[in-house]
Amino acid sequence: MLGKQAEACFEIYLKHSKKYKLLVSNIQINSVHSTLGELDYIIRDINTQKILHIELACKFYLYDKNAGILEEEKWLGPNRKDRLYDKLEKVKTKQFPLLYAPETIQKLGHYNIPVPIWQQLCLKAFLFLPKKLNSSTFPENYRNCIVGYWIRLKDFEEEEQNYYYTIPTKKEWLLPPNSLKNWLSFAKVKQAIETQIQGRKSPLVYKKTPSKIERFFVVWW
């Protein structure tokens, strides 16, 4: 769901861009018996005339220093079902090589597009650190994507009880927090969080203070 929303926004951006021309998007590649995959975007750089293949990903990752050895293995989805490492490997071993499959070259020929030389991954990441972990030790490209923190249910009691909270649905995760309407008291949101934790789901929570809106995950693991 998030991926489809991000794709729609990115396509609108490309269509209004003065730097890039969108040639084709969401190209499904099929063999005789199966679907091989999909190319997100083929674009032309108007200034250089280079043809580019861009894969887009929109991900929410939480940092767990004990989840692996490589740094990319330590960034996990809220319910630990995916990792940054897995996404990068998929792009490297499946999505980028798909461009050079015979079926892809034939399909692009229908659009009179030569096989692009340049390939890029546009990864829009929303990163969350453990609440008391200092972000200064992370590289700048990671720091620029840090938008909140994560805690466990027992730590939620330490959050301010005189503020209002809301739990956005997943389809609302990309919306500006100020656009959300259903703000709850601490007691009511705690009950809603406990229900999700019992179902082994890690809810995203927004906290509205007088000066800002904070966002964090409460994890079940």
Number of strands: 9
Helix and strand succession?
HEEEEHHEHEHEHEE
Helix content: 25-40%
Q: Alpha-carbon distance between the termini?
A: 23 Å
Report what the structure shows.
By secondary structure, the chain is of the alpha/beta class. The longest helix is centred in the first third of the chain and has 14 residues, at 2-15. The mean pLDDT is 96. Strands 1, 2, 3, 4, 5, 6, 7, 8 and 9 form a nine-stranded mixed beta sheet that branches. A hairpin with a 4-residue loop joins strand 8 and strand 9. The protein has helices spanning 2-15, 84-95, 102-110, 140-143, 153-156, 186-198; strands at residues 20-30, 35-45, 51-63, 75-76, 118-130, 146-152, 164-166, 204-208, 213-219. It is built from six helices and nine strands, in the order H-E-E-E-E-H-H-E-H-E-H-E-H-E-E. The chain is 25% helix and 33% strand.
List the helices and strands and how they pair.
Elements: H1 2-15, E1 20-30, E2 35-45, E3 51-63, E4 75-76, H2 84-95, H3 102-110, E5 118-130, H4 140-143, E6 146-152, H5 153-156, E7 164-166, H6 186-198, E8 204-208, E9 213-219
Parallel strand pairs: 3-5, 5-6, 6-9
Antiparallel strand pairs: 1-2, 2-3, 3-4, 7-8, 8-9
Give a short overview.
With 221 residues, the protein is an alpha/beta fold. 25% of the residues lie in helices and 33% in strands.
